[in-house]
Amino acid sequence: MAAGVKIVMEVEIDGDMAPGFPIVRRLVTDEAQAFTWPWALNATPDPLTYIEVPGSGSAATPGMRRINAFLLRPTDTVRVAVNGQIVIEGAPVMIEAGGMMLMFDGELGPGGTMLSVANMSNSLPTIEGFIAGKHLAAEEIPCP
After folding, report:
1. What is the dihedral of CA 110, 61, 97, 8, to 10 degrees?
2. Which of 24, 56, 103, 132 fits a disulfide with 32 by CB distance 3.0 to 4.6 angstroms?
């Protein structure tokens, strides 16, 4: 079922709106969901264990392949893997406590877990976020 989504992003510098802002995006997507994801329900702190981001899909459970909007906000440090690209040292994306990852109009390649998170802290973070996107038919999936 289609979902209508509106996202407004503002950036101010010393109280003045930055050039090019605000950005207002209106999307119609196959699926949209906000999530609050307490890590304690998924796994113990372990920097080598990656947990699938809700709605992003995996090889076993296909999810959204075309990501119109994605926001991830952890309460503690996490490592994010895209398309199963897990790096033990020197993670491609590390998000500190209170930070965020934002993506618009991305596309995830075939195979593996699309978006996954590993806990890099000694506590059990809560991860909040939002994901909106479209499912791709097999003939739409770009080949590398």
Report:
1. 80
2. 132
Instruction: Tell me, yes or no, whether 101 lies in a domain.
Output: yes
For the stretch 34-39, contacts whose Cβ atoms lie closer than 8 Å and that sit 24 or more positions apart, written own/partner, are: 34/128, 34/129, 34/130, 35/127, 35/128, 35/129, 35/130, 35/131, 36/126, 36/127, 36/128, 37/126, 37/127, 37/128, 37/129, 38/124, 38/126, 39/119, 39/124, 39/125, 39/126, 39/127
Residue 76 lies in a domain: yes
Tokens 């499912």 correspond to: 135
End-to-end CA distance of the chain: 29
Specify the number of domains making up the chain.
1
Query: What does the CA dihedral 113, 125, 32, 138 come to, rounded to 10 degrees?
Result: 0
What is the domain extent for residue 106? 31-136
So what's the pLDDT on residue 20? 95
Which residues of the chain have a pLDDT value below 70?
1, 39-50, 54-65, 83-92, 109-113, 135-144
Instruction: Report CA-CA distances (Å) from 6 to 11, 29, 69, 83, 131.
Output: 17, 11, 10, 26, 12
- Is the pTM here over 0.90, yes or no? no
